[in-house]
Amino acid sequence: MRIFGRWFTVASFVILALSSTPAAAQPDGQLAIAFDASIAPTFLDPAETPGIGTPFVFLYALHDALFKPLPGNAMAPCLAESWKESPDGLSYELKLREGLKFHNGDPFTADDVKFTFHRYRGVSAKMLHDRVKSVDVIDPAHVRFVLHAPWPDFMAFYATPATGAAWIVPKKYIERVGEEGFKRQPVGLGPYRFVRMNPGVELALEANEQYWRKKPSIKRIVIKGVPDRTTRLTMLKTGEADIGFLMVGVEAATIKADPKLRLARTIPPATWWVEFPEQWNPKSPWNDRRVRLAANMAIDKQAINEAERLGYSRLTGSIIPSTMDFALRIEPHPYDPTHAKRLLAEAGYPNGFDAGDLTPLPPFTTMGEAVANYLGGVGIRTRLRGMERAAFMEAWRAKKLGGVIVTVTAAPGTTASRLESFVISTAPYATGGYPDIDDLFRQQAQERDRKKREALLYQIQRWMHERIMFGPIFEPATLHGVGPRVEEPAIGLSPQLYFPSPYEDMRLKKS
Fold it and tell me: pTM, whole model, 2 decimals?
């Protein structure tokens, strides 16, 4: 009886432990996010990534990548546990994490990696597909990428959010349901699974309790597309939203002053800048370097920083974030409207000129208004044009935006990835370029000596600055409103990202 009693006591403790711990660990509750734009279905498909940070707000929840930024590691092993480069730089072999399953139960294998690579059609698709000779499935847990020529940035371009090409989708499922079926019911490997979507309006996600890294603590996340900032603020105040995305200006100041709310901020590798798409047209005023310099000197960057981001942003003279690998720190042109007017007069525009539309990245209307007002102050007259974000990105990429563009990108990557997307003449978001910059870019892409490569990339950035190819404003402090129910919003845990991440690290306060 004594032995039985001891075993009964031990068993009782075990039963109590087993009955209480899992219950506490189960995902619970719902968190609502007021997102700053309409939610496009393409944001949920890794194959469609346009080279900016927006889609990764959704990809981090629904999908998973071979490698991605996580707390403490800008290129953390995820679906791939490791990789090794061949001595000649012509191949990369990846060891995949075993035993993982997609949300529909399909096993994750090297076939999915190969399928995803060939299916990718995002902003860097041509470059990746042209440079990769073959994707070889060695076995279900090993895949090898073979290149035509050494490319030191292969992993930085392919296997990170620089492109989205390595965010893996299920081969068997897509072959079974087709592209339209995947669009209606996307399946991934991420910490949350798709429940339903009202395009443009709302996306509902539910915790994937089998997620390899960590079981999410929040049962359901609802992301609502709310382009209007004042509406996002109202939702935050009433409790309809627990996190309000990108709360700048007056709304940010209101949140900061409200004792029930808090302002979470981080400075990701992002830049705001003014784009001059007509600078390559010899008949346009923007073709004159003095006009572009005048526009740079007309804008009071610090005043915009104070008004839009409460002064938390870093001013810059480059579109390459200063924290990126191989970035050259460049000071911004000074605010000097008198000199700007003098430059315009020297260029033949003493009374200024009509520059047409000024289109800001939606829904940042106040940012566009600020730039338009400063340009107008020196005689560069514009008309503010509003668009929906997905339409803006498509028009920009299709070279259909003229006049002036005020834009930002927060896509992680390297200096080379930014140049490839926005600077060289073949860049998807460039309307022209310089042969000498293109030549140096090709050289650095094959240079395996780090110091020599750095020198080439530094020279490209100096030329960009000297030629006034852009009008850099600042590296923005990203401000989000957080409501009283949230214990851990996961904003800034991964400093490479501007949005809450990882989703599985988010927590609500216990009621």
Answer: 0.85
